[in-house]
Amino acid sequence: MNVFQHQSIIDKINLKNRKKAIERKIERRLDEVEESNQEILEKHKENKAYILNVDNLRNVELDNIKWKINPKSSSFWESFAKLSNNKCESAKP
C-alpha cells in the first residue's frame, strides 16, 4: 500500500465522520425547532382559550338580567368586579 492509497482511506474515513457529525447536528437542531414549535402551539392554545373565555363573557346573564358587555372597556371590569362582589356577599351566611 503506497502513501496515496493510505491518504485516500484516511480522507474517506474523515468524510464519513464529518457526514455523521453534520447529521447529528441537523437532528439536534430539528429537535430544538420541534420543541420550540410545541411551546408556541401551547401558548397559542392558552391564548385561544383566553379569547374564548372573553367571548363567553360578552353575553352574561346574572340575576335574570342580560348584560351586553364589551371586555375591552374599563367599565366592563368595574361592572364585573361589582357584580362578582355582590354575588360573593349575597352568598355569605
Task: Write a concise keyword list for the protein shown above.
single chain; 93 residues; mainly alpha; 2 domains; two-stranded antiparallel sheet; 2 helices; 2 strands; 77% helix; disordered C terminus
Put simply, the count of helices is 2
Instruction: Give the helices and strands as they follow along the chain.
Output: HEEH
Mean pLDDT: 70
Number of strands: 2
Helix content: over 70%
Counted up, domains total 2
General form: rod-shaped
**Poorly predicted spans:** 87-93
The biggest beta sheet reads: 2 strands, antiparallel
Q: Give the radius of gyration.
A: 32 Å
Structural overview:
- The protein has 2 domains: 1-56; 59-93, no CATH class.
- The chain is built from 2 helices and 2 strands; from the N terminus they run H-E-E-H.
- It has helices spanning 3-56, 74-91, and strands spanning 59-62, 65-68.
- It has a two-stranded antiparallel sheet with strand order 1-2.
Write the layout of secondary structure elements.
Layout (H helix, E strand, L loop, with lengths): L2 H54 L2 E4 L2 E4 L5 H18 L2
Q: Could you provide a short overview of the structure?
A:
Helix content is 77%, strand content 9%. With 93 residues, it is mainly α. The chain folds into two domains: 1-56; 59-93, no CATH class.
